[in-house]
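Researcher: Structure for this, please.
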Amino acid sequence: MARAILEAREDLAPMASTTKVLMPALAPDSEGHPVLPNHRTQSATTIQTWSSVLFGIPFLVAGFCIGLVALEKFPARQHAPDWLIGLVAGMFSFGGLFFTVHGIRGVMRKSAYRREAAQRPNEPWLYDFHWRQDGIAFSAFDDMLERLLAAMVWTTFLVPFAWVGLNIRGAWPFLAAVGIFGLLGLIFWFRWAQMLLDLLRYGNSFLTYESFPFALGGTLRARLRPPRHIWAINQLTLTLRCVEERYVTTGMGQDRSTRVVCYEIYKDVTTCDRDRLTGLAGNDLPIEFHLPPDQPATHLAATPPFYWEIEAKGRARGVDYEAVFLVPVYRVPC
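Model: Predicted structure, token format:
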């Protein structure tokens, strides 16, 4: 649930008017690296390992206690129907469960990484991430499902406030707030509809690695399996980029908040026109990029991480194509 809320907040970024209100724009860093405002993050949250566990436990306890009230197992005066109390209990419980499980998994992953790094310090690509050496898939279905969950969580979050505004005398500000934030919620549902249409039209995608891993200072060669209805794409833009995630704190006092921000450390772009795409005739699309030697290597086990990716965006009439693939770029000893 917490991850879905984070996804929902990020989905607001393409809408310039709401972005400025809910998520102030960040300037490039001291080295001029720009911010990627609507980028898929590898970090589920800014809280990691035992801190995440400790943060999640109070939510679990609160959800359990509220659930007892909803089930009338705990003596307390109820000022709302059982279904609404149960809904609030579920929100607290799922949020606490997310942070607790996320923290425990982080502890286990850190321990495994340190153990493997001590045994094979010069081969981080074997334990930094669960790489498939033949390639990587982009699941448009998972992408759509995350957006759907984000929209559902946002809508569910507004339900208790709507009930208060409708049933408590003088609580009309709650109803007004629900109306405003409900309109913003339409953005989430619109984004979900886009992802659904993308899935139905193009399906999932797969990027095949020509070698594993890719070495900084060398050449990245891969092959993109053409999506369904590739003939509908007028132009396909392929972007290789190095991304650094940072945990950025903004605001002061009670308005202080920390979020995951993605900085674009390096970028290279190539495009394929309609003639080249339609001429594939069922064959994979070859991709080639030069990897500069002076850029950071992939470190997905870090918190926050560094990573390299290839983003494929196709312009088409009606529904555009979009897929993102992680690529294993490391500093390989000679």
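Researcher: Any notable elements?
Model: The CA atoms of residues 93 and 227 lie 39 Å apart. Helices lie at 2-10, 16-22, 49-70, 82-119, 140-167, 172-202, 274-278.
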